[in-house]
Amino acid sequence: MTTPTIELKPSAHPLSAAEREAILANPGFGRHFTDHMVTIKWTEGRGWHDGQLVPYAPISLDPATTVLHYAQEIFEGLKAYRQPDGSVATFRPEKNAERFQRSARRLAMPELPVETFIEACDALVAQDQAWVPAHGGEESLYLRPFMIATEVGLGVKPANEYLFLVIASPAGAYFPGGVKPVSIWVSEDRVRAVPGGMGDAKTGGNYAASLLAQAEAAAKGCDQVCYLDAVEHTWVEELGGMNLYFVYGNKIVTPALSGSILEGVTRDSLLGVARDLGYEAVEERVSVEQWQRDSENGTLTEVFACGTAAVITPVGTVKRASGEWQQGGGEPGEVTLRLRQALLDIQRGTAEDKHGWMRKL
Ligand code: COI
Description:
alpha+beta, nine-stranded mixed β-sheet, binds 2-OXO-4-methylpentanoic acid
């Protein structure tokens, strides 16, 4: 099967520079989209074809399109950063491309070649590079590649047609408070994913499943929900859309991948960044009892959430049915901020990229 090259059909009506600059001055998260998008089709027997870079626009779907009924959908999130010399670079797109392939396998979808995924992201960023926010701030251009089943029909089976798209959105802080600590509700009854399920795939269904528990967290006055494992209701898994890290002085722990935890690119990068800075960074099981006990006895000094959208966000108050505690003094921890800065320095091109993570356009 051939890999399509992406044909450019530029927008005849891009936003004016003044309109774009007004959006870039305060982009929020996921509220505004750039002038173009990439689309590539897949058809059984033909493979990937008709790669196009077209004006950003609504897509039209038959009401019986299978994704609307059976949720055969996967997505990714990665960012492009303005570099000090004005150029643009994306962060570890091949990691997202590889995870996209794993998600596709889990949802019985066709695998997009890694190089096509990267080519699609490159093409969109190159075309819409005026949308990449200025160097040095919190802002970046968030890329959202995704794939949907587009066969029309109500039979439950892997579709015979798919559409891959990449859209882009200028992004500021995911949480309105920026690096202000977020509060967490530990849900001990609702679960995000089960062993043998699709918790390690990046598919919309996992996020839909998290919304009720997220609403319950909000009703308890918390910003985010934290899930425990589905069998013992004991082991910390992840938040609704972010991984977690626990800081024990010089030792930094993230819950070990269990099959129901999403393998975050930021999670993985922080293992490397932390080791570069001389920390012991490990993947281990962490129980909610241990979390509460070690916070209360002071050995667990900091906790933070991490993800492409959230970058690194400190955790402040933690609540569970049996009580609550305060992580640190309610201020972002020193290690949290150090790791955050070290990662952002690489992404913004102000520190050496010794792992070869940045892809310059
Ligand atoms: C990301 O961090 O890129 C995600 O996909 C998570 C979502 C909460 C925005």
